[in-house]
């Protein structure tokens, strides 16, 4: 991963391959003009104050994520200046927000693939800004090349991104290397980004190499490394325990299902959280087979479990004063002679029976067992994360996830945490009238209800398996979990690691007693 450092050096004398600066669209009355952002004063001075004019000549507009490269001025030890757009110039005295800096740093880091060292002279008003820039650099520099034919030699040379190595080192100018607050902000950024990138790696790994058993092995290795207790329930243990949902989904696959429990505890904890992740390592739809064109990216259907896994490890590495338990509900949903059929009835871990009307509505079945298991430990709150419904993508698009909950205040707190860390999310309702559509003449409940509002129906189904009196939120990350388009900001093509930062922030708030 890219090395991060804080530096008080001046841009002209710093030995680097590039100097990154920020530019923005000027505010009224000259709304079309380009302005150089704070942090780049020394660079602008070297251009005799005409840097903005030079960039405008090159076509720069200051638009968010726009990257413009130009030769460094005479006397600089770095040969290149990289100007990255910050969007609209903020109002007077308000400064640039963290997400703007995070996106700009990510865009610049992607553009600097193949570069050994870059100095980032972006606006740093405080330690939080330094953390945002650092996080953006590390997330933007991410690449996944393990399976490319040149990848073996490239990986040895730390190469990626069209044969170019990711940016090796980023020095944040204006940082305070001896300031404990700045150092802590950068260390936090590095930890969260490293674990988020671990989640991305898992999501991007092809399903012939990542199944429930191998995913569980990855979790066991990380748990051992970071002092996290781990328990893995295999088919025999799941059968003995009566986990009918997880077993029913995994029944059609040669790769057996698993339920992984990761437990991080702090001696100073006053609150406990449970994170539950959907981990369908490949989703064919089962007997209710997906149509052509809908299977190719279904390796990402374990993104919820990847996010939960990464968040628990991050909480342990950060030493947060809160107990966090992660539940990874892992199965492969395949059609075969042993697969669950539409019309079958499963007896869940909670004792409730579920009529399976559609085997492609499998995520809610594995989550139901894991939610009930988590509830038995009576945590203060439960959050589940899942690439659950196409309906949520229709409602919110590909970059925003939905939040449902059994408690309005808790839903608001989770939404606020998501927005704070730069993960677009939107609170969604759980309309009671939609529950009736899941009534079954055969079982206690069906796994399908009304077609309209399908994402909300799924949330109502999950609510049935949350213990009484426990605050619960459901994050449907079907849209932003996997980016099928081009990279943007610090978001790569492929697995994104969505929800990791939200979960970590929720854990931090719980540790501080500020979750509500």
Structure commentary:
It is elongated, with a radius of gyration of 24 Å. Helix 4 (127-140) packs parallel to helix 6, helix 9 packs antiparallel against helix 11 and helix 13 (408-421) packs across helix 15. 34% of the residues lie in helices and 21% in strands. It has helices spanning 41-46, 51-57, 98-111, 127-140, 151-156, 180-204, 212-225, 235-241, 244-250, 303-318, 363-375, 390-396, 408-421, 454-463, 500-512, and strands at 3-7, 18-25, 34-36, 67-71, 80-88, 117-121, 169-173, 229-233, 258-264, 272-283, 323-333, 345-347, 353-355, 381-386, 401-405, 425-427, 445-446, 471-476, 482-483, 494-495. The mean pLDDT is 95. The protein is an alpha/beta fold and 516 residues long. The protein has 15 helices and 20 strands. A hairpin with a 5-residue loop joins strand 12 (345-347) and strand 13. An 8-stranded mixed sheet has the order 8-9-11-10-14-18-15-16, with helices on both faces.
Outline the low-pLDDT stretches. Answer: none
The termini sit apart by: 35 Å
Number of strands: 20
* Beta-strand content bin: 15-25%
Rg over CA atoms:
24 Å
Largest sheet composition: 8 strands, mixed
